[in-house]
Amino acid sequence: NAGVTQTPKFRILKIGQSMTLQCAQDMNHNYMYWYRQDPGMGLKLIYYSVGAGITDKGEVPNGYNVSRSTTEDFPLRLELAAPSQTSVYFCASGYTSALGETQYFGPGTRLLVL
Amino acid sequence: LAKTTQPISMDSYEGQEVNITCSHNNIATNDYITWYQQFPSQGPRFIIQGYKTKVTNEVASLFIPADRKSSTLSLPRVSLSDTAVYYCLVGDYKLSFGAGTTVTVRA
After folding, report:
1. Torsion angle defined by CA atoms of residues B86, B92, B95 and B100, in that order, rounded to the nearest 10 degrees
2. Which of A32, A68, B62, B76 has the most CB atoms within 10 Å of its CB?
3. Is B45 close to A105, i.e. CB distance below 8 A?
4. Rounded Cα distance, B64 and B60, in Å
């Protein structure tokens, strides 16, 4: 299994540009998440999904949009990029068991908005 | 979501045991306690998870007292490669990552 994959690894955007961060998982997990991590900080939840066709906002959703048309894919869309969106973006997928939820993270996408 | 409090940083030496305590006073009945590890430039990695008492795996042990208002992650005989940020999370899903505890292991 490839696990959770993210593309691109690194991107530079100009202010006002748009882009889509791709995330895919091959573990058939129902839960998927997008986080951002600013330097020296913890992860903040942007959006999450509990299954195909179902998405909901996290702590910091403004400036982002998501869709979940399949179990495997959970793209994150940035419209009108701003310098405040410079960050590392992590996608994760998760499953629940009798012991709780376990999340698996992708390698991250570094985004620089200039 | 239950709020967690853990130390900002801890220093240790190779071969020592590191214990990180996390406070979660308002943990709910359905909540599990999960710990993740994050190395620089990588996504977090699941370490261990538990509900009550003690859980042990090949990497760490997790001690949870009867009242479940705190938990302690124990890393036995740490090495330089255990230098990382450790996150304590409480909940059933949609877990919230705080700032974590930066553990620095020195030779």
Report:
1. -20
2. A32
3. yes
4. 13
CA distances to B31, B33, B49, B51, B73 from B65, in Å = 14, 12, 14, 10, 12
pLDDT digits (tens, 9 = 90+) for A48-97: 999 999 999 998 999 999 999 999 999 999 999 999 999 999 999 998 88
- How many residue pairs bridge chain A and chain B with CB atoms within 8 Å of each other? 60
Confidence at B53, pLDDT banded by 50, 70, 90: confident
- Say yes or no: B40 contacts chain A, CB-CB below 8 A: no
Answer yes or no: do B32 and A99 touch at CB < 8 A. Answer: yes
Q: Report how far apart, in Å, the C-alpha atoms of A110 and of each of A19, A32, A90, B51, B105 are.
A: 13, 19, 9, 35, 27
Edge-to-edge, what's the strand order for the sheet holding B18-23?
B18-23, B70-75, B61-64, B53-56
